[in-house]
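Q: What does the assembled structure look like for these inputs?
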Amino acid sequence: MTTGWIWHEAFNWHNTGNGSGFFPPGGFIQPYEAFDSPATKGRFAALVEVSGFDKQMKRLDATEVTDEEILRVHTADYLRRLKALDPTGGDAGENADFGPQGLRIARLAAGAVANAVRGVLSGEVSNAYALVRPAGHHAEPDRGRGYCILANTSIAARIAQEDFGIKRIAIVDWDVHHGNGTQKIFWEDPNVLTVSLHQDRLYPVDSGFREETGGPGAEGSVLNVPLPAGTGDGGYVRAVEHVVIPALQRFEPELIIVGSGMDAAVTDPLGRMMVTSDGFRRMSRLVIQAAAELSGGRLVFAHEGGYSAHYVPFCGMAVLEELTGVKSAVDDPYLVFFQNYPQRFIEPWQEEAIQQAALLARRVPVPVA
Amino acid sequence: MTTGWIWHEAFNWHNTGNGSGFFPPGGFIQPYEAFDSPATKGRFAALVEVSGFDKQMKRLDATEVTDEEILRVHTADYLRRLKALDPTGGDAGENADFGPQGLRIARLAAGAVANAVRGVLSGEVSNAYALVRPAGHHAEPDRGRGYCILANTSIAARIAQEDFGIKRIAIVDWDVHHGNGTQKIFWEDPNVLTVSLHQDRLYPVDSGFREETGGPGAEGSVLNVPLPAGTGDGGYVRAVEHVVIPALQRFEPELIIVGSGMDAAVTDPLGRMMVTSDGFRRMSRLVIQAAAELSGGRLVFAHEGGYSAHYVPFCGMAVLEELTGVKSAVDDPYLVFFQNYPQRFIEPWQEEAIQQAALLARRVPVPVA
Amino acid sequence: MTTGWIWHEAFNWHNTGNGSGFFPPGGFIQPYEAFDSPATKGRFAALVEVSGFDKQMKRLDATEVTDEEILRVHTADYLRRLKALDPTGGDAGENADFGPQGLRIARLAAGAVANAVRGVLSGEVSNAYALVRPAGHHAEPDRGRGYCILANTSIAARIAQEDFGIKRIAIVDWDVHHGNGTQKIFWEDPNVLTVSLHQDRLYPVDSGFREETGGPGAEGSVLNVPLPAGTGDGGYVRAVEHVVIPALQRFEPELIIVGSGMDAAVTDPLGRMMVTSDGFRRMSRLVIQAAAELSGGRLVFAHEGGYSAHYVPFCGMAVLEELTGVKSAVDDPYLVFFQNYPQRFIEPWQEEAIQQAALLARRVPVPVA
Amino acid sequence: MTTGWIWHEAFNWHNTGNGSGFFPPGGFIQPYEAFDSPATKGRFAALVEVSGFDKQMKRLDATEVTDEEILRVHTADYLRRLKALDPTGGDAGENADFGPQGLRIARLAAGAVANAVRGVLSGEVSNAYALVRPAGHHAEPDRGRGYCILANTSIAARIAQEDFGIKRIAIVDWDVHHGNGTQKIFWEDPNVLTVSLHQDRLYPVDSGFREETGGPGAEGSVLNVPLPAGTGDGGYVRAVEHVVIPALQRFEPELIIVGSGMDAAVTDPLGRMMVTSDGFRRMSRLVIQAAAELSGGRLVFAHEGGYSAHYVPFCGMAVLEELTGVKSAVDDPYLVFFQNYPQRFIEPWQEEAIQQAALLARRVPVPVA
Ligand SMILES: [Zn+2]
Ligand SMILES: [Zn+2]
Ligand SMILES: [Zn+2]
Ligand SMILES: [Zn+2]
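A:
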């Protein structure tokens, strides 16, 4: 059993512009860094190398997605606009800046997820983790949004469908923000189940409701699990157990892609959740088991957001240990503190939100014989 | 009416050691910055100057607290240890590092709060804001804790009692962490009411419970309001209205000191709360009104924690606008996003926690005739 | 005797764009900081405050220069372009970026130098130091150049001439780069002597030659002293003694302005000179003596470039000590190393360059009776 | 023909302590970064990857040097002290700090150079570049000095001698500082020629003189080429042509190791030299040609210092292009500016210093039949 691993140094070079938080500095906004700084992902990649854990995995290449691949998900007009912006950089839509010649980096990020999927489907690796920047799940067919330029995971899913003949795909997105782009792209596709666990009304503030369940002909193939701010390991693990896994069991996907955002982490500046490395570990374990039972083990983790440069590396290592089945030399030094937080247990109001979502999981479409 | 304002550039120089998050870098902890970086407070001070708002206030000096003043709160042994550590710097206790010759900066921070109190009590200013670093509310009589070296606010309260003959003082601490040091120092002092609003069991994980109500002869003078993670403007404002203000009304303080932590802010990496600049504004307004009614307006804000370098400046400006009664030229650019979050309303489980604390507020001691 | 001191926090906010060295990041240029980062000047200002040396000086305000004042030096077209750029920021000419709403900061920098001149000419202070960012000496009438937007010092000189009736002004610029803008602005003005000590052909590479001596009617009023790379304290002090002072003695200025660049410092990344804090101290002392003898002590230091965030603070303190005549509590910790460098002595090839320039000093115009 | 390439992410993690320039921050030294920051080398490694140039080379592993290998150069007492310091980190001697558990990183750096030598001597690769941090050439048998912990290059040379039976080795060190450690280690070894081109009396200030020519039995095997501050491409290329190459031709080494410091670069903050990427390219080309003629092409570049995070990447790419014989996609964007500097030509005083050193080159020992 081999786990594929993809990271490209260019992801550290993705340039979110001259950003200070969400804004260009100027007036009364002092110059500073964007929330989406290289450290938030580069430090995870660095820990994998420094700990030697990359030797436990098979390194796959990131290559750029082609125009043709982009156009499987995005509009021709959007691609034209991206190319026109590329020489100077700019905003691809709504808070989705990239720097001069930065389109290449977005292509590499999408290509990394695509190659992770190719690696798993071709049998070159058993499963895979693609650590990419920029993220992709907010990108919509016709615009970038929320630090996302190209819909990395969606493009990869289309490649799985069209180039590998994979019929049913589940995308499980536990980034703390709603996976609005993925949902929109597959809204009417009954063969792609999109599940999003996210903080209720964080971003985008007007989507991600349980009432959104899929378009005509694809009813039930969209499943939103909004959770109240403050949910920790207890609530997240329960949500995976009681909503995600049952949904997967009904859907019987041939491939599972996890939108592996880490901004539900307990020190994330944008999310307000309290997931520790142990929580990410247990959530991953559950999905790995489900993949083993349902999709022949075919499982790809594609990194999404996560803005705690301090803690993402340790959450990431926990996930990689589960994917590989190998214990690394790294121990999460924060865990001794975070595991005492009361949020290791579930609260009643979290249970309530999960049970509501669990009802929806029962309406996920089953395969047609 | 004049508001005093204190900040010293040396607070930007406070050196929390070679810290990476909570830890010294080494092994599998990559070098990085401590959560308590200069930007988290220096950017607030900078915005005050760049916006010209310092001209709306009276600048007071920070001067170092003397040994004698320190010893009103801390043990002689602890002061000796601090002096011995000073040449090289080191940890003053539990995660309370300071750099070479850094004791001077801790003395200036405590001295800044003391001078703010002196300014208000002498009538030089009507109220005051002391923006200081390091913070103070975790420091205990015999050791530093949690980024705090000296108990800034407690020393200032002792000065108010002993040098100005102020009898009854209320310290209202809305830093997201429990004000364990302040509580400990005044545990048996019925003349100092210490109120702490904080995230339930965040830090220290084993204190800040409602059951802690004060020592022998001072029953009811300690009031803890633990709130569930995820509480936002709605819950915080309600907690001030239903717990803090009634407690103050019973206690009838002659001086109110606010432990003005801003780590309950919605983008703080350590707290998990969702307070916006509008929430801090409304909480401040309530306390200002209470001071006007109860303590002859005598009110000092002493900065505690707050680790969102992006957002603290805008929360801080809102508080200063309330203290001065003057609108600045600065608008919080984030507010348009954050005000759509559902946490502007209170949730039932937050209401429940507040009502429990409200019961305790009724046991706060009233003045003895 | 009082020294005026000007610094404004907004100078730390000057935003040179999303710059990586001289370039916008993109392609094979990794995101990083511009050479002209806030730390290069902000750390000098910080040291002045932390050491308490600001109490030895009189703080003067920085106020924005008006359109009318700008137009005394710059073209109306250039001012129009600056205003048009202001909402988004952009390049004011050649490598002279500023951020959104950044024109205000450039106005404050020019206004700071103007106020320093006003303070000295009005007698409010004896002499003054204006620490400003952006710098000004490369800015030309119709465009920004080399990190300079407005010609700070030139505007101030025009104000001295026109508003205070000062007839003869000497501008002594020892920034390591050629003071091309200042030279151009006063090219035909026989009443302003512009002296530039700089590294031979560094920037602009095609100006700053000894052959440039002033325009029609102003022959000899421009004096360039190009020095070979590697010149240290020995050569610089000699150049001041043998060229600058004799030129000033001939010219008999009523006001001396020093273009106080610190990029001739021994650790500057852009200059290749080897001046230590002691060299800056001795150069300053010589000019202070000359001012005492020639211009009634009327002397203003206006900061120009200087890119060693580590060392500028200590060079700056040495200059301030000379201006005030007061020893600070700060010792340059680097001096023990740098004073052993052989460049504390002059080399023959440096002597040669100085002697060539000394010949020109003899042609500086004397006052007409 | 294949070039070996070694870089390890751990080199980015080397922790020079809580350093501000040369000093621990405290008192009047504001916290800041050490001159030897990760960016100074990590950005070179990053450019190699982002440009895809790593695919033109064969990646070799960095492995830790063993105690036994260290003891071939260093004293047992020094190794004991390093091990004792390792848990907390500390100063290995004189300005040679490392962080907790940092000895591993120093071992990896030395091991990287050793593996580069092994790769070349085994024929696995034709030549090699080891990009390492910390550097090594200042480390002496019994102590670290000047950012160097272990004598990377010297250990590798001993391995070449003892494990591969290489008799004669030349180490050509063009780091801007004197290679004092290397010189000391091989002072009495007539089979190792150590050549150091450096800025005259920069660091260490009391070594690197032409008069130092080797110990008893090894006269002429040490060759110092001190160059005056301000020397650029012209002088450096001439020094290689007129001193280094003739010395190599006399010595007839079987292996050449270049101490590839890049702090002679034109924007280095510590050096005062003016070498551009083109200068490093031409110097490398000359040594590559010499290796082809003299040592069967056996050539290893081991990175030493270099503190211009902006410019090192482009200097490094030029060297790699020469080693591989392949043009990369990267053009040095600074070159258009720097090539106009007058220092592309040699100055008479530089010529003089070179000619003095050339006389010494004639006394380099020739092989004994
Ligand atoms: Zn997210
Ligand atoms: Zn706190
Ligand atoms: Zn300059
Ligand atoms: Zn060096």
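Chain C has one domain: 3-18+32-361.
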